[in-house]
User: Which sequence fits this backbone?
């Protein structure tokens, strides 16, 4: 029996859990001996890179693993052994005692049933109540999780809700039977930061109210720092370190944990700080290494690291901070907090030469198949004026659906514009001939969010990389191949990788290949649409560093789109904030992050969780969801969500994007007032401002 | 002629119940509404229609026209006037009496009505006059030796009180009035494409019919009908069964088969306008090379009569025994050699002007037996060095190639084809002229395009000679001419073989050449013509 | 606060749950069975002259004779050996099936490809497909048969015309989804023309799908050929299984004991060959269709 | 709102397809070799004089220029007055309406049977995917799908009608039997039994495959895991979540099959001598009865179009995601 030093019994205790998937002769060792536990009323965060076995561990606890999984170990809920339970008994645990919230609220709700029905179903599965009573309870729950007009919306279908509201519905469903443990498997990864902040608040509030235990799976250390009592770090199917939140963030012992923390871009770091990169990638889940799973990527290996598996042991006997590392006792000194990046000047106001200029650009989508063209269009991009400076990086941030990708595509001439112009060094895009357009395509290239989707899986990496050359008939096949090798080296990949297929690469390697391909034609402009959001923190750092280096070496102009403000802050010289198809704030990185003038920018910044367990006072995040781009609100498009909005002004007159400070444009009537009235800027944030 | 009944011996080998309450009959072709203007096919459509209607004369068991509605038939020596005395006590199905006025009306009605078989038949009747209640005088435009068989024994008489109100006879719907005739049966239910029901006319002037009710059901094909016959769902079918089924049905215990020779012909026709079919020698060689007996034995399992070189069926009274039908492939080969069609490159196929002598033989794909015949003929011709490629085509497509627009004047578009004429083409010897005359007015069935002055002269003579003996002489000459000239090859005449259930009804009466599926089978012995 | 120690000696309940069901998808077997059937039939077709005891056009025995030592499946209405006919029929049925399906695939793939890649043109093309799909096919068949004449080649053409349309639909929807893929957008953004994109990215993927469709369509084509022959709309003089059935039906074999050796074997062979290709097609679809490949 | 407009746009597309199809329906009979003359005039067309033939042709309106005939055809469609059968002299509407109920009886019953069986088996098979049962039923279904229709029908006749004598082999009712009430219903049911059985057996595989496929893909959806995580019984998960959702695309398959089945009964109606529309068309085609051909083609065309329309509009109606 697992016990706690304090004598408080674990509510859910997992011990020596191993899960192996038998897939047609090949075995996937997904979980290789995991110990973790959560006590009553406690929030345990489980962090780790993608594929480290977090979800599988939780699914094992619920008995929901697929048939080909082989499980051993022990999973105890109170004093019952879940692994030994019959399916029937396990069903009475699922939903009733352990509630689950899954990552993707879009696909986790059944699209053909109303939300109230799906909640009521969970209630009726575990208690003998009438349909009406269950429905009433469902409505109540919806109210509890903050669905406005719960009664009116209870009989709506999931697709009628926004992502954040759907996640609330999921939470209501998980809470329906008053579970003792709530498992939240990356519940906010698919959501905007603003919505993430709302959900984090909600879960924490409910946990406090109900005295529930929460297991929060996440790869976002910021969220973890904000919510967790204790943290378990998983790596390649093992727990490598666990301890209280403070222990981990302040004094991580395992080399992996330490490096992970430093690989993470953070808003409270020094702007332009270089991220530390963890070389290599997760081990093959089909391999079964003898020793420490992290050894191949570790700087501090001893002989025994490769030979023997380190046990998860408390640092001090009876202590709560446990580490699975042979050198845990060595007090390794990990490098100091990140310093300044050499190349990028900390602060910059002078305008560079404009390479690409957008002037009042509009992209409207008309409903497909409509035979009468009178319908209102989706105003995806609605009057954007923006310049991209030579050799600099422009960061574009905004909530999902604000038109960032559309803007990027229009900039590259991949989207038909509905108004305004895109000009490359004076040449207006839509007046160009086909040949001119083709030539221009060589000067501007796109790096996609999802690297694997942007490569034809049937082509070898070298063919993927040399494809632009082939398309534009540059050189012979041999030359193209040689150039592909060079390009791979530029993005720090070995040439031999060229013989592989994309699916044989890791996510980070794939993104490098995508970048290499984008560089093939020696472009001046690189547009990166969410280049790192599909990647793990450690890989993210590699890519961000790579992009910065390439910019410095090749003098590229970058447009980087991201919803992750910390990433933008790390990489961009200038930042544009987009809301509902329009730019609401534009300025140098330090101006925007240090002294945001638009309430929307402030809301966005406030919503970003700070990966520091000591700074948990969270301001009220932005409420609500962005309105539909089909019928944007009159006046200031943001006024409905703005705490400062002044009736009669903000809801009638659209504010122009003005240069209210030198080099700092804002589209807000009340910018000056708000700046004056609000509390003093955050000390850490203003560190560089 | 006689008016007495003949015993039902000799012409039919059938036996079984002599009367029945209900007889269920299968048919395989889609028929329309069964009136003289709307029936669809000659067989069985017209046979079914004639259950409800009578003509002035009626073919007897030997196929000879005998007095029927007209008790007496007298023609003037010049053959231009026929005086008909109607039988007494003939009533329509609704009880009205059939009078001379009805006959006169019918003649005029057909002449004025839309074109068709009966309008064509009546075209030559220039005048019809009712002398009294029961006497009609018909005046002909030109003498017609076939008038009795072709017109008097064929055209159904209509009830004036029914049809005088109908202006569009070819659209006449089935209803209470249009189903009134004078025949042994009245059509009481009509669902074209599905079924018909006939009820016996108890007041029939030749005696009450032997079967009370006839139910006629339409099948999609012979296989379905045969299955139904075997399963007892129908009692007989109006389609000669395939030869291989004869023994099967006979062996099935409860069933029997009535078998009789029929005048239906199966021909090999060729386009005599193209070389080398334009040479009589070549045609003769083809005829000599075809082993008709083998066709009968192999394909029809013996259930057919070998075709006669002179066209006329051996059972017919017009048959000229002196015409010889020979199979002699060596003679055929010699003939071919003689006209210069030799196999110069020894590939087994002769050459004509350097090109190998090969023809496409068309055959309708819906007729399995003819397809087998075609295959066999192909083999047989191949043995004398004539290449044949059998090509099965859909029936209408074949018709369109051989007989475009049903008008021989429009030419033809084939080399060789399997072909056939219905029984009526033999029943009336006059039809022989229409097969071979090059004058489209006479030779309207001359689908081979055969033209020969001597034959044409004989054809005219056959069409006009009124004296029976003289006409027989002309017919003999024409048969000899045909045998010599070979405008087509008469291959065989399949026997009629009709499966039936003798427990239900089996008192069949066959007409030579036309088989048992006519109203004669249902008319009591003492009412037979 | 709670902390946790690992008590080394604690007796842990160790439970091993073995997977309850074999995960190996048994439906894989189906593909193997299909391949075996197709291979076997293919061998028979190729080796027909060696395997068949008689020339199928030869009148080798008494007509309508039941199975005997000389004629294992008896003879037909003109004394041809039915076993030889079955063996040679394999050639016709497989050839017609394969060639017709291949022709239909080429047509369907081209139309589907163009229709999917150029959406405007595609809408028009798909209306054409709709029309083909709703036309009454019997008269279409007769018209075609009349114009083309009856021959094995024309049967192939007719079948191809009848079955290409659904393939065009399938291919089109695949191309439609392909065209939205990031890697195609990427190629376009690098300046690739339509020809390049189709050749390099769309066609290879689509061909794979077309191959799966082709195998499945072969099964349909074999069935169609037999139906056409049976209805007398094909060429009954060609030695195919369908025409054997046509003759069996025309000569009343269904109603005599002959059905056991004259009707059953061709029907079963048609079924078997269609089944072989259908199974193969099913297995291929499982491999090709990404939606089915998951988990 | 948008959906309605989309619907109208679809309708417009259907209208175009309909026009093209109607045009082809007009053209096909006339493209076919052979002429309906024999039909119009009775068999002895050969005995007619050329004048008479011309008169007959004119009477049927076949001497008009094709354009005029074409316009007349459109007029007949728009006025719902299709003229008379060359062969039977019966109005086309009467013929078609007389046959329609029988075809509907066959197709609807077969669809109901095959739909129910196919859906149940398909769902079960997917639920037990990879099991012996799944493999067994899957291969059986594929085998069924590979069975020639006519062959099965004929074997059924040989077995059930000729050998066993249990069921009638032809027709829709017992001809000449004056039945009414229950006896009539029983008679009709008896006659429909074999054709329906054949049709159903042969349509089950398509439904089965569609349902199995659909169920398999639903089983992989995240919300199924959610339902399981709620602690629902497997039966409840299967019924409320899997089957309910998997049925959506299958309804489309069913609707499309309806249109297809409608035209696909030709063979069955021929084998069983069943007086449905398919046979009416077949006979009309063999005889070149132009008006009947056009009439039946039109019915089939419209049936398929309606089925497509039904499939198109059914899906959005059943799926809340596309419901506005
Ligand atoms: N059904 C399965 N069959 C085979 N392998 C599986 C299966 N499910 C998961 N795995 C493997 O198990 C390992 C752990 O997966 P898991 O989903 O637990 O990762 P995770 O830590 O939750 O990652 P993420 O952050 O991406 O959700 C991965 O290598 C994954 O590929
Ligand atoms: N092809 C399209 N047709 C219609 N609407 C579209 C289309 N593409 C995008 N939109 C709409 O345009 C708006 C902007 O979309 P866009 O993809 O540019 O947003 P984004 O800021 O990139 O969002 P995300 O962060 O989720 O990628 C959204 O409301 C989207 O639904
Ligand atoms: Mg996970
Ligand atoms: Mg985007």
Assistant:
């Amino acid at each position: 029996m697992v016990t706690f030093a304090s004598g408080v019994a674990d509510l859910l205790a997992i011990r020596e859990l191993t899960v192996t998937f038998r897939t047609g002769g090949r075995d996937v060792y997904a979980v290789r001996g995991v110990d973790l536990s959560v006590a009553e009323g406690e929030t345990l965060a489980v962090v780790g890179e993608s594929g480290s076995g977090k979800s599988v561990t939780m699914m094992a606890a619920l008995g929901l693993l697929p048939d080909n999984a082989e499980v051993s170990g022990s999973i105890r809920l109170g004093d019952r052994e879940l692994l030994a339970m019959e399916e029937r008994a396990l069903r009475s645990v699922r939903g009733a005692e352990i509630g689950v919230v899954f990552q993707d609220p879009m696909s986790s709700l059944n699209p053909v049933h109303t939300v109230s029905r799906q909640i009521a179903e969970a209630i009726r599965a575990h208690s003998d109540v009438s349909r009406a009573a269950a429905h009433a309870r469902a409505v109540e729950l919806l109210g509890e999780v903050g669905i406005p007009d719960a009664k009116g919306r209870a009989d709506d279908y999931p697709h009628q809700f926004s992502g954040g509201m759907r996640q609330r519905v999921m939470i209501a469903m998980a809470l329906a039977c008053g579970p003792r443990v709530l498992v939240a498997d990356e519940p906010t990864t698919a959501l905007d930061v603003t919505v993430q902040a709302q959900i984090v608040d909600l879960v924490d509030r409910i946990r406090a109210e109900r005295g529930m235990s929460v297991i929060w799976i996440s790869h976002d250390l910021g969220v973890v720092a904000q919510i967790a009592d204790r943290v378990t770090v998983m790596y390649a199917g093992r727990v490598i370190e666990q301890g209280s939140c403070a222990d981990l963030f302040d004094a991580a012992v395992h080399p992996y944990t330490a490096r992970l923390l430093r690989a993470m871009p953070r808003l409270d770091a020094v702007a332009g700080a270089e991220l530390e990169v963890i070389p290599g990638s997760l081990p093959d889940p089909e391999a079964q290494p003898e020793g420490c799973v992290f050894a191949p990527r570790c700087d501090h290996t001893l002989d025994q690291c490769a030979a023997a598996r380190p046990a998860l042991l408390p640092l001090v006997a009876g202590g709560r901070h446990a580490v699975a590392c042979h050198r845990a006792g060595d007090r390794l000194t990990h490098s100091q907090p990140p310093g300044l990046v050499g190349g990028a000047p900390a602060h910059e106001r002078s305008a560079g030469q404009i390479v690409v200029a957008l002037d009042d650009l509009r992209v409207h989508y008309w409903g497909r198949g409509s035979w009468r063209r009178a319908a209102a269009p989706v105003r995806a991009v609605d009057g954007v004026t923006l310049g991209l400076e030579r050799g600099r990086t422009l960061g574009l941030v905004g909530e999902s659906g604000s038109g960032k990708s559309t803007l990027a595509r229009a900039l590259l001439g991949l989207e038909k514009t509905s108004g305004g112009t895109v000009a490359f060094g004076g040449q207006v895009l839509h007046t160009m001939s086909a040949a001119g357009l083709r030539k221009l395509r060589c000067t501007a290239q796109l790096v996609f969010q999802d690297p694997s989707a942007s490569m034809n899986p049937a082509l070898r990496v070298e063919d993927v990389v040399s494809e632009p050359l082939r398309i534009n008939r540059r050189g012979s096949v041999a030359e193209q191949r040689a150039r592909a090798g060079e390009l791979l080296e530029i993005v720090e990949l070995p040439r031999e990788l060229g013989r592989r297929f994309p699916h044989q690469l890791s996510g980070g390697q794939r993104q490098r290949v995508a970048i290499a391909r984008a560089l093939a034609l020696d472009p001046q402009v690189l547009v990166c649409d969410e280049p790192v959001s599909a990647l793990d923190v450690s890989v993210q750092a590699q890519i961000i560093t790579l992009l910065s280096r390439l910019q410095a070496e090749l003098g590229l102009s970058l447009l980087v789109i991201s919803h992750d403000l910390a990433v933008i802050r790390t990489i961009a010289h200038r930042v544009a904030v987009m809301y509902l198809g329009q730019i609401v704030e534009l300025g140098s990185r330090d101006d925007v992050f240090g002294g945001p003038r638009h309430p929307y920018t402030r809301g966005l910044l406030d919503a970003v969780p700070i990966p520091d367990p000591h700074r948990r006072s969270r301001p009220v995040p932005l409420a609500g969801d962005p309105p539909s781009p089909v019928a944007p609100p009159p006046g200031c498009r943001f006024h409905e969500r703005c705490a400062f909005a002044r009736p009669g002004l903000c809801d009638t007159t659209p504010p122009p994007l003005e240069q209210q400070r030198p080099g700092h444009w804002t589209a807000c009537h009340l910018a000056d007032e708000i700046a004056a009235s609000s509390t003093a800027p955050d000390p850490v944030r203003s560190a560089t401002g | 002629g006689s008016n007495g009944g003949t015993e039902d011996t000799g012409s039919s080998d059938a036996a079984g119940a002599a009367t029945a309450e209900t007889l269920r009959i299968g048919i395989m072709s889609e028929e329309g509404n069964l009136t003289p203007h709307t029936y669809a096919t000659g067989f069985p459509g017209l046979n079914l229609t004639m259950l409800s209607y009578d003509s002035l004369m009626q073919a007897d068991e030997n196929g000879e026209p005998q007095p029927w509605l007209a008790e007496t038939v007298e023609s003037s020596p010049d053959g231009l006037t026929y005086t008909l005395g109607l039988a007494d006590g003939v009533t329509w199905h609704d009880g009205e009496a059939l009078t001379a006025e009805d006959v006169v009306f019918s003649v005029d009605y057909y002449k004025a009505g839309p074109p068709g078989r009966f309008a064509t038949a009546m075209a030559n009747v220039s005048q019809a006059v009712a002398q009294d209640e029961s006497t009609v005088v018909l005046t002909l435009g030109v003498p017609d030796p076939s008038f009795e068989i072709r017109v008097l024994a064929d055209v159904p008489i209509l009830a004036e009180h029914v049809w005088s109100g109908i202006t569009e006879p070819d659209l006449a719907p089935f209803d209470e009035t249009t189903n009134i005739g004078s025949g042994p049966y009245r059509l009481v239910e009509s669902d074209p494409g599905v079924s018909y029901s006939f009820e016996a006319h108890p007041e029939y002037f030749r005696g009450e019919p032997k079967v009370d009710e006839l139910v006629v059901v339409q099948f999609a094909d012979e296989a379905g009908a045969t299955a139904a016959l075997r399963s007892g769902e129908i009692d007989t079918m109006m389609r000669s069964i395939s030869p291989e089924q004869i023994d099967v049905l006979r062996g099935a215990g409860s069933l029997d088969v009535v078998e009789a020779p029929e005048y239906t012909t199966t021909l090999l026709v060729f386009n005599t306008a193209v070389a080398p079919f334009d040479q009589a020698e070549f045609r003769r060689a083809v005829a000599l090379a075809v082993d008709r007996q083998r066709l009968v034995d192999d394909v029809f399992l013996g259930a057919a009569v070998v075709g006669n070189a002179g066209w006329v069926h051996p059972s017919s009274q017009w048959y000229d025994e002196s015409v010889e039908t020979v199979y002699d492939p060596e003679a055929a080969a010699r003939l071919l050699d003689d006209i210069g069609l030799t196999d110069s490159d020894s590939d087994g196929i002769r050459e004509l002007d350097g090109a190998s002598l090969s023809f496409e033989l068309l055959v309708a794909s819906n007729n399995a037996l003819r397809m087998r015949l075609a295959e066999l003929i192909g083999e047989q011709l191949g043995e004398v060095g004539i290449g044949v490629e059998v090509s099965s085509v859909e029936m209408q497509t074949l018709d369109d190639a051989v007989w475009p627009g049903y008008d021989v004047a429009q030419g033809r578009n084939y080399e060789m084809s399997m072909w056939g004429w219905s029984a009526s083409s033999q029943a009336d010897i006059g039809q022989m002229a229409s097969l071979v005359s090059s004058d489209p007015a006479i030779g309207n069935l001359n689908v081979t395009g055969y033209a020969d002055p001597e034959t044409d002269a004989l054809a005219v003579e056959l069409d006009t000679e009124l004296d029976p003996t003289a006409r027989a002489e002309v017919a003999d000459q024409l048969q000899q001419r045909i045998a010599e000239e070979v405008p087509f090859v008469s291959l065989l005449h399949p026997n009629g073989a009709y499966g039936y259930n003798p427990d239900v009804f089996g008192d069949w009466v066959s007409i030579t050449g036309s088989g048992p599926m006519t109203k004669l089978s249902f008319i009591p012995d003492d009412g037979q013509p | 606060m709670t902390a946790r120690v690992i008590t080394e000696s604690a007796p842990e309940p160790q439970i091993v749950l073995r997977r309850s069901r074999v995960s190996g998808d048994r439906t894989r077997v189906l593909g193997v069975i299909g391949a075996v059937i197709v291979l076997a039939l293919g061998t028979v077709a190729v080796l027909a002259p060696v395997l068949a005891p008689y020339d199928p056009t030869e009148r080798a025995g008494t007509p309508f004779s039941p199975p005997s030592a000389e004629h294992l499946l008896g003879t037909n209405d003109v004394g041809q050996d039915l076993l030889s006919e079955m063996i040679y029929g394999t050639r016709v049925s497989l050839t017609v099936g394969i060639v017709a399906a291949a022709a239909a695939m080429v047509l369907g793939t081209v139309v589907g490809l163009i229709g999917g890649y150029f959406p405007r043109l595609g809408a028009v093309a798909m209306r054409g497909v709709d029309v083909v799909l709703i036309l009454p096919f019997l008269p279409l068949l007769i018209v075609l048969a009349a114009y083309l004449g009856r021959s094995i080649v024309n049967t192939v053409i007719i079948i191809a015309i009848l079955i290409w349309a659904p393939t065009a639909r399938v291919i089109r929807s695949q191309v439609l989804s392909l065209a939205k893929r990031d890697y195609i957008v990427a190629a376009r953004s690098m300046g690739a023309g339509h020809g390049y994109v189709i050749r390099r990215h769309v066609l290879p993927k689509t061909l794979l799908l077309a191959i799966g469709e082709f195998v499945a369509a072969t099964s349909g084509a074999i069935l169609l050929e037999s139906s056409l022959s049976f209805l007398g709309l094909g060429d009954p003089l060609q030695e195919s299984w369908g025409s054997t059935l046509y003759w069996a039906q025309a000569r009343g074999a269904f109603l005599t004991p002959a059905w056991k050796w004259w009707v059953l074997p061709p029907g079963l062979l048609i079924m078997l060959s269609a089944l072989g290709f259908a199974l193969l097609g099913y297995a291929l679809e499982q491999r090709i269709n990404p939606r089915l490949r998951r988990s | 709102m948008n959906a309605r407009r989309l619907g109208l746009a679809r309708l417009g597309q259907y209208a175009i397809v309909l026009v093209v199809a109607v045009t082809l329906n007009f053209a096909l009979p006339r493209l076919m070799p052979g002429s309906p003359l024999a039909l119009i005039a009775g068999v002895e067309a050969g005995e007619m004089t050329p004048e008479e033939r011309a008169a007959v042709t004119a009477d049927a309106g076949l001497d008009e220029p094709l354009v005029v005939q074409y316009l007349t055809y459109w007029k007949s469609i728009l006025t719902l007055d299709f003229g008379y059968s060359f062969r039977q002299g019966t109005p086309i509407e009467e013929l078609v309406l007389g046959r329609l109920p029988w075809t509907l009886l066959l197709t609807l019953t077969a669809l109901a049977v095959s739909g129910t069986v196919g859906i149940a088996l398909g769902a079960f098979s997917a639920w037990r995917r990879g099991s012996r049962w799944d493999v067994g039923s899957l291969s059986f279904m594929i085998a069924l799908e590979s069975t020639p229709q006519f062959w099965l029908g004929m074997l059924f006749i040989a077995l059930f009608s000729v050998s066993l004598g249990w069921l009638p082999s032809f027709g829709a009712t017992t001809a000449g039997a004056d039945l009414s009430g229950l006896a009539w219903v029983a008679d009709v049911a008896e006659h429909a039994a074999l054709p329906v059985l054949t049709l159903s057996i042969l349509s089950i595989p398509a439904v089965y495959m569609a349902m199995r496929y659909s169920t398999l893909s639903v089983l992989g959806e995240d919300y199924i895991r959610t339902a399981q995580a709620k602690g629902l019984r497997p039966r409840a998960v299967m019924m409320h979540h899997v089957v309910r959702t998997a049925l959506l695309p299958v309804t489309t398959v069913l609707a499309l099959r309806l249109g297809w089945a409608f035209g696909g009964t030709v063979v069955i109606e021929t084998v069983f001598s069943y007086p449905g529309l398919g046979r009416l068309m077949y006979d009309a085609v063999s005889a070149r009865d132009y008006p009947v051909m056009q009439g039946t083609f039109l019915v089939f065309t419209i049936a398929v179009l309606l089925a497509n329309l039904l499939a198109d509009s059914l899906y959005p109606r059943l799926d809340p995601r596309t419901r506005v």
Remarks:
- Chain B is about 30% helix and 20% strand.
- The CA atoms of residues 233 and 362 of chain B lie 37 Å apart.
- Confidence is low (pLDDT under 50) at residues 1-12 of chain B.
- Residues A 365, 378, 380, 398, 400-406, 563, 629 surround adenosine-5'-triphosphate (ligand 2) (CB under 6 Å).
